[in-house]
Amino acid sequence: MKQIVSVTLLNLRSIPQRWGMSLATVLSIALVVGVLLGFMAMANGFRATMQGAGGDDVAIMLRGGSMAEMNSVLTRDDLRLIEVAPGIAQDADGQPVLSAELYVVVNGVKRSTQTEANIALRGVGEHAPALRPGFTMTAGRMFEPGAGELVVGEGVLREFAGFDLGQSIRLGQNEWRVVGVFSTGGTVFESEIWADIGVIQNLYDRGSSMQIVRARLTAPEALEELSAYAEEEPRLNLEVLSERQYLSRSAGGTTNLIMFLGWPLAIAMAVGALAGAWNAMYASVDARTREIATLRAIGFGGFPAFIGAMAESMLLALAGGVIGAVLTYLAFDGITASTLGGGFTQVVFDFAVTGDSVVQGVILALIVGFLGGFIPALRAARVPLLAVHSD
Amino acid sequence: MTDATPLYELKGLSKRYMRGREATTIFDQLDMTISHGDFIAVMGPSGSGKTTLLNLLGGIDAPSSGEVRFEGARIDNLGQGQLAKWRAANVGFIFQFYNLMPTLTAAQNVEMPLLLTKLSAGERKKRVKTALDIVGISDRAGHRPRQLSGGQQQRVAIARAIVADPKVLLADEPTGDLDRATADEILQTLQLLNKDMGKTIIMVTHDPAAAKYARRELHLDKGRFVEKELA
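ok -> structure tokens follow
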């Protein structure tokens, strides 16, 4: 053990003698980890934004087989049957706590690029705020039913120009006035603009149709009761999901797409970094050939030389992993971005560099260190003793 | 082992190298005996096999044929692990270019062979101090090799070679990189280790002046020894 510790310390102490190559290895590994964590931060942020909005005590009802809100059409008759369904909570007046909703896609101009991007303009009923946990009006007031008024999510306000409080804005053929700004604590709803559903139905010629009905359940377990009702009622063709299930399904595709891009790119770069680590470790072993041979001539074994070289490689990789993680955290964590979510509208979300993704990034770095160091370490263990005479 | 058992016995020792497809014989059927307490200067022209002989005596190279016996026991047929243990217990090496670990202090360099023993940290510290005292470099114990002159570095290397109290010191051109005055100081130190501490020393050198410090000279030429008694 003393042999291993002393030879390992010798290796580690000698790193500054090869600082250039060691630094290049550390930076290349940091870059790999940075790229991976960047993608993961994007995926995590998007997933958190989508899933954070989803409650287990809110049911989403859409037309059976439609899979997504955009493809769903529900009628006033459907709504009447839903209003009397079991499992839906009632307000103080005995009215079911639900919101029939319809959204259309409008164009907004992004502040960052001055390019147009889709935003969801959602027509909602009076109970819509009660169905979003953490909903607060942060400025202004709620729209008046029947009026051409909008309230905008904070994400929209941050990312898009022209939605400042009190401002009038033309969306398509229609002129609107922004009367309030709302927050839902960073969830996907903040990427939307809301207006009265009746006004949206009129202005966009949707008659009395809607796309989904969102309803507060008496308890999360009531979802089963509601599903059974929808299934047994022959006049209804409904898919009933909890809000969490629905948003997870919507987030899945985009999250997977981000990760399918991120991991292969990180792995391709890791192969490059591996070559760098390999090169650096070969240089390290070459530079220390006489030193290693001398230790072995004195009586040290080959195994400590192997462990010493591996420790050096792993330390460089760990340093790269940690630097990559810290830089990614400083550069990306909490920054706001937007991307196309379900329904072809922009979802505004914050990058999230999580502990789990840091661990995965550091593990990737250590794998690079291990693979990059293994063969050179074997070479260190097999340094010929006659190298004691090399100069 | 009895007192009469020589330290080394070489019997029919041959060493051949393959250079491409051609076999080169360094020496063939060499016989030799080295007693405890001897101080031998091995001399000879370049390529005569002086360093190869030292490598065979130190167990860092293997003969093509023949036997190397140390205190009566063969070492030429030991495995790598056994040889490493044997070297740690019996041999101290001194190299032309000192071969010190650049990131360690003089004291840490000297301590290296003791890390292979079961001595406590305190005991190791004492032994390191004694070894540095013997070679007269204790005042540089905390210095790193780059902060030391060539002569000082070689003294540290000698301290490292003797710190574990080996039976034999194998020195490969120990003064080859030093000026005359410093070389003489180093050679006097080796002579002291031989005369006062009874260390057997086998020293390869090109330098006739260095060889004069030994008890006997062994000239290796064309695979044969020619011996000359000195002191």
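Strands of chain B lie at 8-19, 22-34, 39-43, 65-70, 73-74, 91-94, 168-172, 200-204, 216-221, 224-229.
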